[in-house]
Amino acid sequence: MNRPLRSDPSRCSPGIRQALARGLAKRCPRCGRERLMDGYYRLRPACRKCGQQFQRAIEDHIGLIYITTAIQTAMFAAFALLVRPDNPWLWRGALAVVALAVMMLNLPNRKGLAIAIDYLTRRGVEQQEPGVSRET
Ligand SMILES: [Zn+2]
Question: In the chain, where are the structural domains located?
Fold first, then answer.
């Protein structure tokens, strides 16, 4: 795809922490000037500022989302077992609702983090392969 870029992409090379922070904030991990999503969860195809592609195969993102969901579930389950309320069923029901709400609310952030990790790994591969160039 030879779409003209609005800025020099070679100037957009963030560090690892900056790219991850941008992903968590649902911003382009490369330039940070564009939102990753339209609406709550629908991913944009690419950054309109720097041309970074966002949409890859779903398998590239689903692993991290699955792992972070499992970690959060384990944390809420441990919390539910550690607290001994008077009415355990009410407590666990309320905690399940809170856990689902928290996981749904941070789902776009986790997807942004997955995109940032994908960007960082692909950037590393592209820098190591001398035959691969970003621009033609
Ligand atoms: Zn960008």
Answer: 16-125
